[in-house]
Amino acid sequence: MVVSLALISAVGFACASVGQYRASRAQAEHLNMSIGLLTGLFRSVDFLWSIGFDVVGIAGQFVALIFGPISVVQPVLSLGLVLAIVIERRLARRSLSVVELLATLAVALLLTAFVVLRGTSTTEAVSSSLTVLVSLIVFGGCAILYLVAKRTKERLPTLLVASFGALSLGCASVLEREVGLQIDVGVVHALTGYQLWILLASAPLSLLLTQSAFQFGELKIVLPILTVGEPLVAMVLGRFMVGEPLFPSQNLLWGLAALIGLACSLIVLARSESIFRSAVSDSTSASSEGDGS
Asked: How many helices (H) and strands (E) does the chain have?
């Protein structure tokens, strides 16, 4: 059930990413890392229809994290990139390249191997003090980055913004897991827990960082970092904040090899997707300029 829910979530996030990327690229560059970017996105038709798919993705991820470990759910969610590639190629009436087909096959096989080796066993050792400390460091750092961008009014390095976006999303996934564990105790317990409110308060900041990173257009940097960085951050933080093991207790080397191979295959797909999206954006811009002249 955990894997099925994560797959449903991956489909939702994949469909949402297509619309959100189009919407963020359509925004004026001076809005980057500002509240104006978010207000502009919520006036975009592409962004509005993507919200529905995002809700499906978030709901599927949340329920999956109630029953399953972060180190299984998050790698499965990385299939969202594969699904997004397939969707965009269908919309563009193009076929996958040989490299994309091989990388997709590798992702499927290595992900299956890792999930089988890891299993879906969970732990419930939430460290409250560590959760507060990590959340303050991660989201405090994101807030400082926002304030720096607002004060200097200069474009921040893409690598920096994308990295903080991956950190915020990874930490948010761990907080979702902790809220899920609290729901097992009782809904009231979850509603009164600080994890839920940290999660809700940090959501706009995470959205601003990720959409600002996409707006930069340097997808060869942004996509690999967000695709691989988010699940890795979530798995590492989950190890310390929730006490969930990263790898299977047995066959450690095989589990590690599968995870490294999975990350490398996703990076190949992310870079290929960045080239495709950049080409489509350049083609669209050229067509617009031609129509204007």
From this structure: 13, 0
